[in-house]
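The data layer described in this paper is built around a simple, fixed record for each protein. Because each token names a local backbone shape, the row as a whole describes the fold. We quote a single record here, exactly as it is kept in our systems:

***
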Amino acid sequence: MIFNFGKCHLMGALMILSTLIPTYLGAQSKISDSEASASAVVLWAVDVTGVQNLQFDEIVTGEEKVIYLDGSVSGIKRSGQEKPGKFRITTPQSFQVRFKELPSTMEGPRGINMPIEFFAAWSEEQFPSKQQLNMFDINNTLLISSTGSVREIYLFLGARVTPAQSQVLGDYNVQVTLSIIHGI
């Protein structure tokens, strides 16, 4: 019985204390206002997709081969598998296109290089005619202005390789990086 009485007595004391504390704190409290700010940048979304890789297929030593932007090919060995590189850019806003550190050689077996020269164009058509291709200097930044609505722009990458007569046989590769600057 003593245990229960003590518990009830303690609860009564807590109730008296809890009614006195808010009154005491209310008389002593002060209100302080503080301000914070928030910031944001709103950008339209941009989607950049590599649609197809630039493909030379087989190349004959000592013979130049060119993959043109419209998909046509010059050179002795043509397989029909040759393709220009193609990127798709989807956005409603203006953007800039730039190739980063464009290589001048393809790397082959045992670190042997083969010269390569790139050129580019863009179009609003995925399979453009020569007249629908807008050529641009691949070494400079290209600005494509907004039309205000979402649209797809296709960027085409062609190239010329000039293997030496004594070019080492094997697979040659190169990595090309496309940079898109949007929200401008």
In short: The first helix runs from residue 2 to 28.
